[in-house]
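Q: Family with sequence similarity 183 member A, please. Structure only.
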Amino acid sequence: MAGRPKERVVTDEVLQNQILRELYLKELRTQKLYTQYHVNPLRKVHRITRKPMSWHDNLEEPADARFLNLIHHAAQGPRKRYPEAQTENQEIGWDSEPLIDPERSDHRLNHFRVYNDITLYKAKMWSLGEDDRHK
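A: Structure for Family with sequence similarity 183 member A:
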C-alpha cells in the first residue's frame, strides 16, 4: 500500500454543494443571537473605575491634609527629603554641583570645533563619498 501512488478523487459538484449546505444548516442551528446580557454569577466581579468627566462621580469631597502632605513628601526627590544619602547608590550622585564654574569662554576646558578653509573642504569631500579618511 505504501508504494502505490495516490489516486485523485474526482469531486462531484452536487455532493460538494450538499456538504456545504449541511455545514451551513448546522451553523444556523448552533448559533444564537443574544440581545440581553447579564453578569455571570459564577465569576468574581471586578470593580470598574469611575469616569473622570462624570459630574455625579466628581462631587466635592473634603481634602485630607495628612494624606496630601504624605503624597507631596513622597513626590519630592531624595535630596529634599533627607539631609544626607541613605544608600550607597545615592552617595554616587548626592553632590552633583560642578566643582568649578562652567565658563563657556574659557578655552582651557572647552574645545569647540573650529572650521576653516581646509576643514570645510575636507568635510565636503567626505560628504561626497571620498574614502581616504585614514590616509
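A: Brief note, in case it's useful. The chain has five helices and no strands.
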